[in-house]
Amino acid sequence: xxxxxxxxxxxxxxxxxxxxxxxxxxxxxxxxxxxxxxxxxxxxxxxxxxxxxxxxxxxxxxxxxxxxxxxxxxxxxxxxxxxxxxxxxxxxxxxxxxxxxxxxxxxxxxxxxxxxxxxxxxxxxxxxxxxxxxxxxxxxxxxxxxxxxxxxxxxxxxxxxxxxxxxxxxxxxxxxxxxxxxxxxxxxxxxxxxxxxxxxxxxxxxxxxxxxxxxxxxxxxxxxxxxxxxxxxxxxxxxxxxxxxxxxxxxxxxxxxxxxxxxxxxxxxxxxxxxxxxxxxxxxxxxxxxxxxxxxxxxxxxxxxxxxxxxxxxxxxxxxxxxxxxxxxxxxxxxxxxxxxxxxxxxxxxxxxxxxxxxxxxxxxxxxxxxxxxxxxxxxxxxxxxxx
Amino acid sequence: xxxxxxxxxxxxxxxxxxxxxxxxxxxxxxxxxxxxxxxxxxxxxxxxxxxxxxxxxxxxxxxxxxxxxxxxxxxxxxxxxxxxxxxxxxxxxxxxxxxxxxxxxxxxxxxxxxxxxxxxxxxxxxxxxxxxxxxxxxxxxxxxxxxxxxxxxxxxxxxxxxxxxxxxxxxxxxxxxxxxxxxxxxxxxxxxxxxxxxxxxxxxxxxxxxxxxxxxxxxxxxxxxxxxxxxxxxxxxxxxxxxxxxxxxxxxxxxxxxxxxxxxxxxxxxxxxxxxxxxxxxxxxxxxxxxxxxxxxxxxxxxxxxxxxxxxxxxx
Amino acid sequence: xxxxxxxxxxxxxxxxxxxxxxxxxxxxxxxxxxxxxxxxxxxxxxxxxxxxxxxxxxxxxxxxxxxxxxxxxxxxxxxxxxxxxxxxxxxxxxxxxxxxxxxxxxxxxxxxxxxxxxxxxxxxxxxxxxxxxxxxxxxxxxxxxxxxxxxxxxxxxxxxxxxxxxxxxxxxxxxxxxxxxxxxxxxxxxxxxxxxxxxxxxxxxxxxxxxxxxxxxxxxxxxxxxxxxxxxxxxxxxxxxxxxxxxxxxxxxxxxxxxxxxxxxxxxxxxxxxxxxxxxxxxxxxxxxxxxxxxxxxxxxxxxxxxxxxxxxxxxxxxxxxxxxxxxxxxxxxxxxxxxxxxxxxxx
Lengths: 388, 316, 348
Prior knowledge:
Chain A: It holds the Pfam family Thiolase_C_1. The complex is a heterotrimer. By secondary structure, chain A is an alpha/beta fold. Chain A has helices at about 25-40, 65-70, 90-100, 120-125, 140-155, 160-175, 190-195, 220-225, 255-270, 275, 290-295, 305-310, 325-330, 335-350; strands spanning about 5-15, 50-55, 80-85, 110-115, 195-200, 200, 210-220, 230-240, 280, 365-370, 375-380. In chain A, strand 2 (about 50-55), helix 2 and strand 3 form a beta-alpha-beta unit. Chain B has a five-stranded antiparallel sheet with strand order 7-6-5-8-9, with no helix packed on it. A five-stranded antiparallel sheet of chain B has the order 19-18-17-20-21, with no helix packed on it. A four-stranded antiparallel sheet of chain B has the order 3-2-4-10, covered by helices on one side.
């Protein structure tokens, strides 16, 4: 039996901010979940199962928080799963939820991803000192910056590309009411004047630390037929993992990322992603990852990704808009960031993205990855129901 | 066989938890020695009050006040209290249904011994002397000798207090003993002799440093030890201009990936011994050992000519 | 729905401490044994899913290094749940049902020895009202046991019988950690005595799943998953009837448990009193062989103990010792979340 088609019929997210002081952890998720249900014009009673995702439990100091969150998410009496695949988790969570529908195990599934980073401190959570292990001598960006330098060396990309990405994403975020950073007076000069924290990464080219949640309602063909707004249809979804560190690992363009994209394109019948995909929400925690992922995902030949960025192709009005929502550079509740990419891709093909809508978007890619560039999850959604 | 290493690993953080309105009212109420519950759509009173109905998941907001006395619905005698638990002397864990409530709350009961505790016994709250708006404002329960107020029904409560509590700080410390395992123990032992010992995969023949017990591409144990370095090549790097948490290194400095001669992947380290803006990809370096028997303090240039990009590009 | 079976199961020799090995060093031999049983290698596997806990390890992203033991190269289709491995198996089963994979590797591991597991598990509880009091899992299970005794569902002597039977069964299980109840009489938290509690220890387990003809090719007598379901209850103990497990019953109904009798049950009941609850919820009579492996009272590597129940039940079918078995896994305080699998062997 073939897979059942999967439709995204409800999407909700919180207004992402540095600290949500007015809600509990459950209240934060609940807000996103209710918005997704309202979008689908459904209630918790219509939901068969709940799948949640987040990054390490140490961030909020609650071990396996799905246990405490069951009541708030209407999961009592239902199946509840908790996914954790590092930074890619938001995407993986959505894919686990979509598989429940595709496998015909459930009809309608609620999936939620979140991080409430203000409960602790992300840098604390990410850098718990472990005995006998040489500490990362550089802080968060120091992990990524050498890979950016390697990309620049490999491709000859000029120094200013990263600032173009940051300037674009922060301007896009101004059109997204849920984005965390709303830098109304942003200019390219300001981006470039920001201090160089981990040369070649400037402060202005790094992501914020956010409290936020995102939720989606996924359903089958019958559910989609009843939905009040156009659904986004899943055309392809995949996860790929490779070891975190190994001899021959390509940190600039990991094989797992290439394989994951190839699998998604195969499922979706995409042969020329640059032409056939109308919008991309990719996981860009530091600005330079946009040109790197453009190559890894097959939108540009190796060494050519930065040229697309430089030419304005990835701008909101370019012919391959990347991160019209403002992306991770503007909003980063870590465990939710991947699912926000997936949800924003779905909003685009539903025509529901509001001010940051890409005109006429029919097919969009959502992309998430784990910080060690070892875990990838992606989905491709379309306005049309898949034919196969 | 080298003795296996272990060391304490303390995971400790004072989590700052913001509260929703029901939790805020309840915990502020405790500070004021008032116990609030919340009424559900089917007219049950939940104490402690939760934000969402555990049966219907409906949002709950209708607060009520309940008694500070109640009835034990189940109990368990704890002869050996843990370091963070409410009482330091043996006590009973209890679920108590407070007067006016339909559900029970978990807390501690201070009693003389297990023979002094029974299901159905009447108990009352012993308030903490200093109350801050936390569940620990209830120091514990104590047996009610019948002098307390009579059983009461829940009464409506506005839930409003001056200076409401909007968050709690929840310190949490967990103590672990971390053991890095066989491969890393071998590696660390060699470091004490100022040697860099990697391990070779029996299948793909790649040399891993630091060894982590498995060849991650082949999924087999690495056991053949191979000395690598001391010389190596900087494959890539960044210049750190911001002080990292817990690191006492003067900025700016260079943090680099270094492919030691004979190793098949790069490890990381700080580069010293020259101005930060003169560090290059391909620069040849060697470790500068510290006296603590651990990792090299940093790496410094050897003065050899730079390695060609093609010789290390597979490790970038 | 596709036919999916457990075709291989391997586990470590569970021990109070495995400080001499890292997690990947603990896990890797178990993975090799599972692969060897079906003569597969990592690159033959369609999907991999694991379950583990950062809190148990005391390190964020702890699962990323365990993947080294799999040999994930070329890159693999892989996922991870921060849950017992039984739920990783559930995710893998769903993946096979989609048709995107014909085989799956499921593994989980847990080392309780580095930390104080009774303290660690308090971090699972409501972070506002309960976790600040640090009530440990023995205390919570003892509250449940008292409620069972008060309700007339069990007695301390009956619980002692469960303890003795489990440890006696474990004597035939070379992987068990605890096979006797010497000095088990003192209360840990009354009414639970030491013998009523699981041993604290480290362990790992791995299972290979396969669909249809692939399963038949890989295994002489596959343990077919006839039903698999899991359900969660409300979190707070004070709103639940601790003497019952409605989520277990519902999962069992959905899994088709009550459609036909079973001969074997592997129950994830870390405390003797929880076996009493589960037997009632699953309607298991005296004719059913409950926890012939010794169950979690004989070895309870947290995060793996649920997956091991599925593996033990399947292994009995593989060996021909069972024709229809139920396996159960749990998570959370006092059986908050429960998974039920119904496994069958082909008619001999």
